[in-house]
């Protein structure tokens, strides 16, 4: 028997996490001084959250400390099952330093337990895609976490993450870009198409206006999409249903038989991306 962990930064919807019998590490966020824990959409109200951000609410994120990680993993080390943690990118947070300290203590206390952490080098449903594929593979192959780890290594570079933010100020607040660049981009109506590359967020393209940016992510998908092991096409939005609906309709026209998953962007990712962000995530040709 294997225990498979993910964290809520992977944004895999809670019903899928339940179906795959995943243990979920809830990551914290703070809005106007109120701390919450992301829950993969189980009780999250996206409209309320993003309306608060639009109204000027202060929103930040935080990592977990060593003791929280220790207490989270200890019951599963005590059970003696193999443990696989499919995690969001280690390059996007120092929380993994605390995790490493906790795991080192547990491995000293329980030296016979096999523990592996797979670094997806992605975030949001880019990581969620790999959680889904990796957990499904593991469950279908006798809960062999080594085989699942190797499988994930073989497919992780085939997950494409593209998203468009409406306002760059939120990325600047989170330190993802400089405030000066954000201000210039907003004034000139430059809308970067952001991608996840080598574990960090990068600019994949710069488009003149939102419409061109949305067209770009759809065109890029048409040039590169290929399904892997029932992988879905994921369309996500931060309270921007109208645009997400339009993207879904265009994707359906191009790929009428492809599974399409729709869901809101959760609070931890939303803090950095901001309201009205729209993303398209899919697997691509090798």
Please, could you describe this protein's structure?
The protein is of the alpha/beta class and 286 residues long. The protein has two domains: 2-156, Rossmann fold (3-Layer(aba) Sandwich), CATH 3.40.50.10170; 158-283, Hypothetical Protein Tm841, Chain: A,domain 3. Helix content is 43%, strand content 25%. It has helices at 14-19, 46-54, 66-79, 95-109, 124-140, 145-155, 169-173, 179-187, 210-224, 241-254, 267-273; strands spanning 2-7, 22-25, 28-31, 34-37, 59-61, 82-87, 115-119, 159-164, 190-197, 200-208, 233-237, 260-264, 278-283. Strands 10-9-8-13-11-12 form a six-stranded mixed β-sheet, with helices on both faces. The chain has a four-stranded parallel β-sheet with strand order 2-1-6-7, sandwiched between helices. The protein has a three-stranded antiparallel β-sheet with strand order 4-3-5, covered by helices on one side. Helix 4 links the parallel strand 6 and strand 7 (115-119). Helix 3 packs parallel to helix 4 (95-109) and helix 5 (124-140) packs across helix 6.
């Amino acid at each position: 028997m294997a225990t498979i962990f993910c964290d809520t930064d992977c944004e895999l919807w809670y019903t899928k996490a339940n179906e795959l019998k995943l243990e979920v590490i809830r990551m914290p966020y703070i809005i106007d001084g109120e701390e919450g824990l992301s829950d993969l959409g189980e009780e999250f109200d996206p409209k309320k959250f993003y309306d608060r951000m639009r109204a000027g609410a202060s929103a930040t994120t935080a990592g977990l400390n060593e003791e929280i990680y220790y207490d989270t993993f200890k019951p599963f080390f005590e059970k003696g099952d193999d443990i696989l943690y499919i995690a969001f990118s280690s390059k996007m947070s120092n929380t993994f330093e605390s995790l490493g300290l906790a795991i080192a203590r547990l491995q000293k206390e329980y030296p016979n337990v096999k523990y592996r952490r797979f670094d997806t080098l992605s975030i949001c449903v880019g990581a969620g895609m790999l959680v889904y594929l990796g957990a499904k593979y593991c469950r279908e192959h006798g809960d062999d976490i080594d085989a699942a780890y190797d499988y994930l290594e073989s497919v992780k570079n085939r997950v494409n993450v593209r998203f468009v933010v409406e306002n760059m100020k939120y990325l600047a607040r989170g330190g993802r870009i400089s405030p000066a660049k954000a201000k210039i981009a907003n004034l000139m109506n430059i809308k970067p198409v952001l991608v996840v590359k080598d574990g960090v967020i990068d600019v994949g393209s710069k488009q003149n206006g939102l419409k061109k940016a949305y067209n770009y992510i759809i065109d890029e998908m048409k040039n590169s999409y290929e399904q892997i092991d029932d992988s879905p096409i994921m369309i996500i939005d931060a309270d921007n249903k109208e645009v997400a609906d339009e993207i879904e309709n265009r994707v359906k026209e191009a790929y009428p038989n492809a599974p399409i998953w729709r869901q809101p962007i959760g609070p931890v990712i939303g803090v950095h991306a901001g309201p009205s962000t729209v993303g398209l995530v899919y697997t691509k040709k090798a």
